[in-house]
Write a structure and sequence with these properties.
Elements: H1 5-15, H2 19-38, H3 43-55, H4 69-75, H5 83-91, H6 94-97, H7 104-124, H8 135-143, H9 153-162, H10 167-178
Helix pairs in contact: 1-3, 2-3, 2-7, 3-5, 4-5, 5-7, 7-9, 8-10
Length: 182
């Protein structure tokens, strides 16, 4: 059994000082939790998916060159996080770890990570944020290579493929998840 949500959030705040990175981690956790609920997962599984989303970038700020290996090899294991969560965190950055997303939780974490960051960038440009966001406005921004240029479009496309969803459907689902965020 993994540490509870409060302990996981405390860990996030210990390792990440940047408010924007904390918000990104919270958004990915929300997306993962909503996906698990949508897939009719059980309570413990929902918590695991949320935790994987929350902690996926835990070591990014302190150890960017070692991310996510530092988290999955040194930080999380002694605290009792499950192998499932460690593998999910490891597989969200396959180009760094060599671990491709294979299990459902791994595929969903990969699918939610980059698109959540991208959609947040879109929301920041809009007067109402996520509230009245439309799929077509997100898709239009995806075509603009200069907008949020550090977000790899190919990972966003690959993520939707990994979970067997049309990208527009995935974006629409996430707009619903994030609609109450500022």
């Amino acid at each position: 059994m993994n540490p509870d949500r409060e302990n996981s959030r405390d860990l996030l705040h210990k390792w990440i000082q940047s408010e924007s990175l904390r918000q990104h981690c919270e958004m990915v956790a929300m997306a993962m939790e909503a996906s698990a609920v949508d897939l009719n997962k059980s309570g413990e599984t929902i918590d695991s998916w949320w935790t994987a989303g929350l902690l996926h970038d835990l070591d990014w700020e302190s150890f960017p060159d070692e991310h996510p290996r530092k988290a999955v090899e040194e930080i999380l294991p002694p605290l009792g996080y499950s192998q499932e969560i460690l593998d999910a965190v490891k597989s969200h950055a396959p180009e760094r770890t060599g671990k491709e997303p294979e299990t459902e939780i791994e595929r969903y974490l990969f699918a939610c990570d980059e698109i959540a960051g991208f959609m947040n960038a879109v929301a920041l440009m809009r007067p109402n944020g996520f509230k009245d966001m439309k799929v077509k406005s997100v898709r239009k921004k995806l075509k603009d290579k200069r907008f949020a240029e550090n977000v790899p479009r190919e990972d966003i496309m690959k993520g939707a493929e990994l979970i067997g969803k049309d990208l527009s459907d995935h974006i629409e689902f996430l707009i619903g998840v994030f609609k109450n965020l500022k």
